[in-house]
């Protein structure tokens, strides 16, 4: 049974609720973390900024938002009952259904009583004497706990470029990750979309069908590959339900926790004809197979990568009628897969519509947002709606947007401003004892690694309590070695050849370093388990 929570009065500051643990965020990681900590017998409060559960699947309501992971691999694997009770409608499930799923989970496991909604965390401050974290919400409410787990997400701090005049626009404007709950009606409207990342690629074909005129402002074209979504037949649904054990076994063995595994051959081990046949075969398959089931040197050998990149460019050229537009849509300045591959449905066909215009902002940069629309170096475009599909301050942004202060009053923001993202295993950062990060920072099908991470943190907290320890934090030496190891691995891949959120280089001024552990998820998990087997090697337990 969870301990009864207590309230105390901190001198002159009003009521402070006391918990064993506080979880920040009620998305995929946060909901499971709450469930596991409660199961452990801890008193837990989850603070969630939104008015409902879902995290990414709560905030990103833009048209077309959906999984790029196969639905049967994205759902939680930790409850056999849940696996049998939930039916996925589509092979790559859409946002409304994903939000419903996470609501279903919250209800089924009675998680809501432990969640406070509309509760944005402002600060998280460590009291060294008491070994407790003081958490304060934007509304001034305060709570205190021995453990804090941030499940605030890797892609939740939105990024809007600071265009001059951005607040002067008289029409409607939306960032894709803060999309309104009410339907936005584009009928007959003049709409702008800034950005052509994975989000925009999902949104553009849908808005193009509705809007009077859609103008896409593109800085960097992406290698977009066909998603090949479809409805799940009752037979397939039943087959998944009968074989979830096999599905989960498989995704725990593949490098990135998808159903796909690399072809063990090198690209140039096979003849040109055979290679092309293999590319076509991959292209015809749904999901990330084109990336993650390709020849295994695709992300390490520049010529191999270029061979497939040109194949993708030819696919784009074949679909876009105007050769000038087609060429603008062909990426040439970064290797295939060095940025996240957007998966698309009728994306390239949108550019064949008379009401869709592509503006290359490398040729004519955006100079300002004006009351009427967008001014580039070439002309002023007038709009009724501007959509910012401009991405996120990934991984670090959700954490540095809170005032998190550890030992000696050091802020996480300052620590990472000078060092860049610095953690040990992505799970903790030195100087912030009992502060855990429950977000998946491996290259991994999100839920799969999030489950591992939540389970690792839960076991760690259990260990601390059972063995009579009070706190855990990594040593600076172990953390530095981990960061160096991750960057060393990245240097052997083509990942650093692109400006992307993987490298933090999508945000002006952000320190450039690999933000996701660039190794197989299986290797990441193995390392985390080894650390435990070696008595929490690299951590100090006191
Ligand atoms: P991304 O992939 O970071 O894409 C953001 C887009 O916004 C990208 O095309 C950027 O161009 C563009 N952008 C950003 N700043 C500007 C300025 N100043 N001018 C013009 N264009 C700009 O974010 P998404 O939301 O699409 O996807 C994020 C992840 O969510 C995705 O990888 C999935 O994992 C889910 P750039 O490429 O930087 O030239």
Summarize the structure.
This protein is 33% helix and 18% strand. The chain is α/β, with parallel strands linked by helices.
Main sheet makeup: 9 strands, mixed
Strand portion, in percent? Answer: 15-25%
Structural class: alpha/beta
Number of helices: 17
Average predicted confidence as pLDDT = 95
Regarding quaternary structure, what we see is single chain
Rg estimate, integer Å: 24 Å
Spatial shape: globular
What's the end-to-end separation, in Å? Answer: 26 Å
Total beta strands: 21
Instruction: Give the names of the bound compounds.
Output: ligand NA7
Low-confidence stretches: none
Helix content: 25-40%
Describe the protein in words:
- The structure is a single chain.
- With 542 residues, the protein is α/β, with parallel strands linked by helices.
- The chain is 33% helix and 18% strand.
- It has 17 helices and 21 strands.
- Strands 1, 2, 3, 4, 5, 6, 7, 18 and 19 form a nine-stranded mixed β-sheet that branches. The chain has a five-stranded parallel β-sheet with strand order 8-17-9-10-13, with helices on one face.
- The longest helix has 21 residues.
- The protein is globular and about 70 Å long.
- The mean pLDDT is 95.
- The structure holds ligand NA7.
- Ligand NA7 binds next to helix 6.
SSE order and pairing:
Elements: E1 6-10, E2 14-24, H1 28-39, E3 44-47, H2 56-59, H3 71-74, H4 80-85, H5 95-108, E4 115-116, E5 121-127, E6 132-137, E7 142-150, E8 172-175, E9 190-194, H6 198-210, E10 213-218, E11 225-226, H7 234-253, H8 272-284, H9 289-292, H10 302-319, H11 323-328, E12 343-344, H12 347-350, E13 356-360, E14 366-369, E15 373-376, E16 380-382, E17 385-388, H13 397-400, E18 403-405, H14 412-419, E19 435-437, H15 446-466, E20 472-474, H16 476-491, H17 521-533, E21 539-541
Parallel strand pairs: 2-3, 2-7, 3-4, 5-18, 7-19, 8-17, 9-10, 9-17, 10-13, 11-12
Antiparallel strand pairs: 1-2, 5-6, 6-7, 14-15, 15-16, 20-21
Helix pairs in contact: 1-15, 15-17
The protein binds ligand NA7.
Ligand NA7 is lined by residues 155, 161, 194-200, 217, 219-220, 340, 361, 366, 389-392, 499, 501, 506.
């Amino acid at each position: 049974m969870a301990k009864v929570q207590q309230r105390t009065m901190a001198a002159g500051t009003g009521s402070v609720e006391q918990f064993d643990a506080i979880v920040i965020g009620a998305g995929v990681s946060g909901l499971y973390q709450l469930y596991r900590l409660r199961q452990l017998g801890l008193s837990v409060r989850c603070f969630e900024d939104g008015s409902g559960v879902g995290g990414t699947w709560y905030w990103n309501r833009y048209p077309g938002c959906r999984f790029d992971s196969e639905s049967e691999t994205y759902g939680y694997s930790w409850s056999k009952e849940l696996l049998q009770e939930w039916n996925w409608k589509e092979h790559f499930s859409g946002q409304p259904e994903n939000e419903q799923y996470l609501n279903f989970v919250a209800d089924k496991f009675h998680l809501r009583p432990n969640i406070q909604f509309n509760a944005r965390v402002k600060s998280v401050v460590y009291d060294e004497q008491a070994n407790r974290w003081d958490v304060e919400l934007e509304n001034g409410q305060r709570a205190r706990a021995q453990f804090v787990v941030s499940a605030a997400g890797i892609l939740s701090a939105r990024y809007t470029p600071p265009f001059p005049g951005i607040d002067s626009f008289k029409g409607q404007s939306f960032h894709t990750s803060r999309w309104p709950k009410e339907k936005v009606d584009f009928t007959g409207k003049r709409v702008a979309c800034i950005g052509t990342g994975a989000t925009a690629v999902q949104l553009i074909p849908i808005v193009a069908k509705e809007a009077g005129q859609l103008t896409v402002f593109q800085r960097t074209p992406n290698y977009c590959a066909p998603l090949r979504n479809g409805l799940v037949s009752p037979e397939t649904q039943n087959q998944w339900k009968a074989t979830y054990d096999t599905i989960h076994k498989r995704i725990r063995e593949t490098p990135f926790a998808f159903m796909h595994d690399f072809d063990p051959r090198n690209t140039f081990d096979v003849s040109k004809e055979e290679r092309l046949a293999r590319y076509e075969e991959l292209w015809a398959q749904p999901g990330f197979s084109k990336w993650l089931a390709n020849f295994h040197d695709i992300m390490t050998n520049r010529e191999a990568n270029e061979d497939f990149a040109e194949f993708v460019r030819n696919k784009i050229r074949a679909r876009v009628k105007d050769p000038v537009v087609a060429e603008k849509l062909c990426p040439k300045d970064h290797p295939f897969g060095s940025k996240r591959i957007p998966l698309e449905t009728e994306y390239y066909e949108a550019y064949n519509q008379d009401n869709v215009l592509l503006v290359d902002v490398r040729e004519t940069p955006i100079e300002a947002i004006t009351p009427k629309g967008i001014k580039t170096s070439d002309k002023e475009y007038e709009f009724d709606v501007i959509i910012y599909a401009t991405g996120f301050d990934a991984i670090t942004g959700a954490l540095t947007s809170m005032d998190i202060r550890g030992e000696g009053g050091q802020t996480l923001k300052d620590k990472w401003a000078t060092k860049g993202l610095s953690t040990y295993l992505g799970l903790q950062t030195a100087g912030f004892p009992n502060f855990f990060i429950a977000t998946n920072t491996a290259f991994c099908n999100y839920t799969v690694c999030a489950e591992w991470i939540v389970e690792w943190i839960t076991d760690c907290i259990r260990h601390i309590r059972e063995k009579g320890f009070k706190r855990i934090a990594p040593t600076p030496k172990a953390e530095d070695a981990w960061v160096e190891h991750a960057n060393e691995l990245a240097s052997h891949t083509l990942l650093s050849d692109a400006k992307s959120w993987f490298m933090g280089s999508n945000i002006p001024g952000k320190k450039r370093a690999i933000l996701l552990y660039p190794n197989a998820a299986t290797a990441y998990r193995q390392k985390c388990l080894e650390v435990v087997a070696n008595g929490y090697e690299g951590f100090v337990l006191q």
